[in-house]
Amino acid sequence: MVMESAIGEEIITTNLKQFLLVLSVSLGVATLPQIFSWFRHIPYTLLLVIVGSGLAFVDVRLVTLSPELILFIFLPPLLFEAAWNLRWADLKRNFVTICLYAVLGVVISIAGIAIGLNQLAGLSLSTALLIGASLSATDPVSVTALFRELGVGKGLTTMMEGESLFNDGMAVVAFSFLVALSLGNAEFAFQPVVVQLFTVVGIGVAVGGLIGFGISYLTQRFDLPMVEQSLTLVCAYGTYLIIEELGGSGVIGVVTTGLILGNFGSRIGMNPRTRVIVSEFWDFLAFFVNSIVFLLIGDQIHFAILGENLQIIAVTVAAMILMRAVAIYLLSNLSAVITKYTIPLAEQTVLWWGGVRGSVSIALALSVPIGLPEREKIIATVFGVVLFTLLVQGLSIKPLLQKLNLLGDAPLRQRYSELATRHVALERVLQHLQADTRPGIEPEFYRYQETLIKGEIENLQIKIDKLQDEYPNLRSFTSEQFREELLAIEADTYAEFVRSGRLNTELAPMLEDVLQKSPGD
């Protein structure tokens, strides 16, 4: 018993040392752009992959990356954070397109990669299908982070994130079925495949929805920011584990729960201050997890094994890029027929090239049963392709955005927002000053302070007007911000009435469609 206890303590100590080492390296990488300005041109997550690859090249292994570590520890918080921050109003506008990408896009990707590997690389069909399924899950964390930094349009960012959230679930379902098929535990026929798909997705949506709405109404009963924050963390992991235990898709379940809590629960059950606290907590957790994941992806690479499978990797990369192009351009046209909205060709091109692969693909490859033939070849191929997409596609996405004139005006908007915020703040100070009648303060002092503040307000207004004259598109940005403020006021008012008991359920937003109409409508 004493021996077992000593062994357990040694394991805990070793794991803690490894964790602190990984975290220290990750945080060290985070400071590089502040020390060397050149590194600011590389997205943080890709910089982690590069550093991890450098460690792997000199054979320094920080920790062994397992599928359980990715799927059960790292994946749930990343999925929840993305879903929490994804606005339903934005998702709804592109929902048909995202569903087409996430469902039919996965099928096209798997089939195309499998056929290419089978015909050109001579791999067995079962091995080729498993590689295709592993690589059908997109993971554009670095790309969407770059989108936000550069001010790329919200619609393009939403499509990229939405597709990734939903097709992760589809990829996991497809991979699980193909593994069962390879082991002889499943039948390859249309009806069983469709039944299993609807069962797995249905359980995920149903249980995820039940948990999401349940927690939303529960948080109406109290106002404890730390407890509510902790509940969201329990939801992320609990939803995944429960749904996986029930035979459903944990990925779909966590996405469903995150969407409900982020768009509904945070409105009816959390006051504005709590929403900010929870959002900041998930921003931190996503940064924390991504820092570890992307460093370990690079650190797990075995260059000698990649060299042995270079031909297969090259064929896979070519097939994947080609099938991605077929899926995006074909399904975008199909979406245009259904929704009557055409996605600009430039945006389709970015969606095609920005579909990088990451942690989910690696987790799926590592989870191939040891008994299956060519397991090592599957893992090596997937690692090689993921490395290519992160370093080649990930690093070239910014030049592509520049070439297609899709770069936003984020620095300009930030400067404008700062001026506008200062203007609002000083207006509020002025209102307080004019309403204050504190005894012991001379009226002359009030008038002097008022004159100073009014002068600063006038200076700010001059700068704002100058910016708007030089950059007319800022006027639409101002209108968009103001519209969002009005919608937030409406939603907060409904939530306030629900919390006070004056309403039994939150009303659906009424202004969303009204405010989007043009003045002439």
Please write out the topology.
Elements: H1 2-35, H2 44-57, H3 67-85, H4 88-93, H5 95-120, H6 125-134, H7 141-150, H8 154-182, H9 190-218, H10 225-245, H11 250-268, H12 272-299, H13 303-308, H14 310-339, H15 345-353, H16 359-366, H17 375-403, H18 410-435, H19 443-470, H20 473-499, H21 511-515
Helix pairs in contact: 1-12, 2-12, 3-10, 3-11, 3-12, 3-16, 5-6, 5-8, 5-14, 6-8, 6-16, 6-17, 8-9, 8-11, 9-10, 9-11, 10-11, 10-12, 14-15, 14-17, 16-17, 18-19
Question: What does it look like?
Answer:
There is one protein chain. By secondary structure, the chain is mainly α. It has 2 domains: 362 residues, Up-down Bundle (Na+/H+ antiporter like fold); 106 residues, no CATH class. 79% of the residues lie in helices and 0% in strands. The protein has 21 helices and no strands. The chain is globular, with a radius of gyration of 26 Å. 37% of the residues are buried. The mean pLDDT is 84.
For this structure, the CATH topology of the largest domain is Na+/H+ antiporter like fold
Low-confidence segments, given as residue ranges, are: none
Give the overall shape: globular
Instruction: Tell me the Rg in angstroms.
Output: 26 Å
**How much β-strand is present in the residues?**
under 5%
Look at the structure and give the CATH class of the largest domain. Mainly Alpha
- The helix fraction, in percent, is over 70%
Count of helical segments?
21
CATH architecture of the largest domain, by name, is Up-down Bundle
**Largest sheet geometry:** none
Order of helices and strands: HHHHHHHHHHHHHHHHHHHHH
| Tally of individual domains | 2
